[in-house]
Amino acid sequence: MIRLITQPTEYLENYHHTYGDIFAVGWQKPPGVVYVNHPEGIQQIFTANPALFRSGSGGAVLRDLLGDFSVLLLDGDRHIRQRKLLMPPFHGDRLKAYGKLICEITQETAASLQVGQSFRVRSLMQEITLGVILQAVFGLQSGERFNQLRRLLGELLESLGSPIGAALLFFSGLRQDWGAWSPWGRFLRLKQQVDRLLYDEIHERQANLDPTRTDILTLLLSARDEAGQPMSDTELRDELITLLLAGHETTASALTWALYWMHSLPEVESKLRSELQTLSTTEPSQPDPDQITRLPYLTALCQETLRLYPVALTAGVRMLKEPMDIMGYELPAGAVLFPCTYLVHHNEAIYPNSKQFRPERFLERSFSSSEFLPFGGGHRYCIGAALAMLEMKLALATLLQCWTFDLPPQKPIRPVRRGVTLAPPGHFKLRVQRSSENGYRSTNSR
Ligand code: HEM
What we know:
Blueprint (H helix, E strand, L loop, with lengths): L1 H5 L1 H12 L2 E4 L7 E4 L2 H9 L5 E2 L5 H7 L9 H11 L5 H5 L1 H13 L7 E3 H18 L5 H18 L1 H8 L12 H25 L8 H7 L10 H14 L2 H16 L1 H12 L11 H5 L2 H13 L9 E3 L3 E3 L2 E3 L4 E4 L1 H5 L15 H4 L20 H18 E4 L9 E3 L2 E3 L5 E7 L11
Helix pairs in contact: 7-8, 7-20, 8-14, 9-10, 9-11, 11-13, 14-15, 14-17, 14-20
The chain binds protoporphyrin IX containing FE (HEM).
The site of protoporphyrin IX containing FE (HEM) has 27 residues, from helix 13, helix 14 and helix 20.
């Protein structure tokens, strides 16, 4: 367990090396926790009847943070209903409408950078993605409450990001409130402050409901169940915090890796810059977000980033309610299954030289949903996958149009655990080499 917390990729690789494409670990009654590391088994899980699994209740680790009503932790009909409610803002025209906003938030956030300055990449990317998700969820991203929310959400994630913080998630015995200075005490107090801000916003918006607004909170406030009842305040709070947390640090980690890879491999940066130069625009300073999202090399670069170090090492947990045959093994009810994204993404038969960052592999062939699964799959497929891809492409294109960075000489960086995710280390820095005269930085109009 300690290895899983402190060296998660080595932990998985060692077991895989010894036991292969499906293995069970842990001290619980056999078969305990089962990692499924082969596309065949993963496809069986993703295409099985969702009623076979309990996912939500298997994710008790997150319950303290997200609450009982989070879509991530619900099962059955309630899960289906919440997903239906939450999906529309993340698709189609509603999603497209975020394009310009993402470019603008990226420009504004990066505007403080100075030539010659070294900056912590993950912090800057987190500011960008938090700005985007606050806008999507609340339709706003400025004002006193939002500044406080920004700060507190960052601190909340930070409190779980360290190895001690991650241990809190894994060992329930450590979750003791020994005052504000103890790790769990600090977490609880931060959560309380975040909750207060969320409830204040909920109450204010309930009192002045404007049904013409298109943000997610308005959507949730207007929703009614079969009995005509609105969502309770606790349900609303749990859904909001889930989207705020699931929706920004994950994308920030992916963006940070993408910047790392392109600056440690000059040929990757140069191919991307050449592709960005092909953008045709009526106004040279403002390429169309739609055009950017269709660029093939940029798309492949984002996919390769999510493949090599997937932000989520595994898809979410699936606990079997009934026995199930997976890859020839009869697994009993109670078995806890993890489709293991990291190990599939490093299967040499699918991705030769899997440790090498090579976006071209995504241009040479396509991969099935059980071979490339950074956003999980089946009935729990990530709700924000399209938004995350949009953000990655537009933020990267905007940054590269406005700035040239370089990577000070250093050893290759390795992923570290951050709570339940895998992230680039917080100390990773880039240096600002040049700011572009022609970038669309100068045309910021918001
Ligand atoms: C690079 C960014 C992201 C990655 C790698 C990622 C990855 C994942 C993964 C692996 C799952 C579990 C899927 C499964 O169990 O099969 C998931 C679920 C989820 N994600 Fe994301 N995610 C990202 C961004 C986002 C964003 C931007 C949002 C939304 C605002 C979001 C909201 C959610 C929600 C609500 C779920 C729960 C879905 C359910 O249980 O039905 N994610 N994500």
